[in-house]
Design brief:
Elements lengths: L1 H21 L6 H15 L6 E2 L1 H13 L14 E7 L6 H9 L5 E2 L4 E2 L6 H6 L6 E8 L6 E8 L11
Parallel strand pairs: 1-5
Antiparallel strand pairs: 2-6, 3-4, 5-6
Helix pairs in contact: 1-2, 1-4, 2-4
Length: about 160
């Protein structure tokens, strides 16, 4: 029961951090992506990710490839990658990260698997223990197709049969 209470408090703290970064006045772009991801990593005892401008440039390059179709497709690049699409405009980095982190509820650490029919790979990439660096970007797609957001990670994670941490 003690573990469950501690876990619940950690998740509440994580969600408060995500909400607070969404409403912050003008944090820089890197912080908007880093703070909620590092809160998720902290919740499972991992050291924080650091911002990598080369990864951010790669993410921006790929986001620019999606500006005309906003297709939710991976880049097939050499990095770990999380992608997000939202309809309309005005999507904030913390909202995309929150959608990835919320997948924690579907991840079973002891079985190292997602709940049947659910996704949890975005979450496990964020909390992949060997991953140290991240860079992210977003574009508003043409013709009101929405917003495309991507983060790239190095070293990449989500190796089959390995636990994230």
């Amino acid at each position: 029961m003690m573990h469950s209470t501690h876990y619940s408090l950690t998740i509440i703290t994580l969600l408060l951090l995500i909400v607070s970064t969404t409403h912050a006045k003008t944090p820089n772009l890197a912080s908007q992506f880093l703070i909620p991801q590092n809160a998720a990593r902290h919740a499972v005892g991992l050291r924080p990710l650091v911002w990598d401008t080369n990864l951010a440039h790669y993410a921006q390059w790929y986001a620019n490839q999606r500006v005309h179709d906003c297709a939710l497709e991976h880049s097939d690049g050499p990095y770990g990658e999380n992608i997000f699409w939202g309809s309309g405009t005005g999507w904030k980095p913390a909202q995309a990260v929150s959608s990835w982190v919320e997948e924690f509820q579907w991840y079973n650490y002891w079985h190292n698997s997602c709940a049947y029919g659910q996704m949890c790979g975005h979450y496990t990439q964020i909390v992949w223990g060997a991953t140290r660096r991240v860079g992210c970007a977003s574009v508003t797609c043409t013709d009101n197709q929405g917003v495309f957001i991507t983060c790239n990670y190095f070293p990449p994670g989500n190796y089959y049969g390995e636990r994230p941490y």
